[in-house]
From TrEMBL:
Organism: Metabacillus lacus
InterPro entries named among the record's database cross-references: CdAMP_rec, N-reg_PII-like_a/b, N-reg_PII/ATP_PRibTrfase_C
Highest taxon of source: Bacteria
Protein name per the record: Transcriptional regulator
Pfam family, one: CdAMP_rec
């Protein structure tokens, strides 16, 4: 068994959730935030059998769109000066960032 952890953009999350559940994947959807942009994104936890991992990855890939996002300069006042960016920067946020992790034990009490 594997645990798929997928970080996707909020705009894609409802469509992806529907697609995954339509394909009988069991899914937990978590509200999360990216450390760099400090804005909201969505993390999916999908526990599934090894043979279904490729199908889940395909659905995640098909339902996530990579987008350019402008990062506005943020004042270091009261914050961490190490992360201060003095000018707007454009970053490409991926359609999905995915980790596939082996599951040692799965219990469903
Ligand atoms: P954020 O950390 O908010 O990052 C958003 C986007 O900003 C990233 O897109 C990347 O294009 C850029 N970025 C991140 N850190 C950067 C840095 N130090 N310098 C320059 N640009 C940087 P993605 O790579 O597609 O990541 C989208 C979201 O996926 C991330 O949001 C984070 O929530 C998650 N993520 C990505 N890699 C991860 C990792 N290794 N571990 C945990 N979460 C990760």
């Amino acid at each position: 068994m594997k645990l798929i952890i997928a970080v996707v953009q909020d705009q894609d999350s409802n469509r992806l959730l529907k697609t995954l559940t339509d394909h009988n994947f069991r899914v937990t959807k978590l509200a999360s935030s990216g450390g760099f942009l400090k804005s909201g994104n969505t993390t999916f936890m999908i526990g599934t059998e090894d043979i279904r991992v490729d199908k889940a990855l395909q659905l995640i890939k098909e339902n996530g769109e990579s987008r350019d996002q402008l990062v506005a300069p943020v004042s270091p006042m009261g914050g961490n000066a190490d992360s201060y960016v003095p000018y707007p920067v454009q970053v490409k946020v991926g359609g999905a960032t995915v980790f596939v992790v082996p599951v040692e034990q799965f219990h469903h009490f």
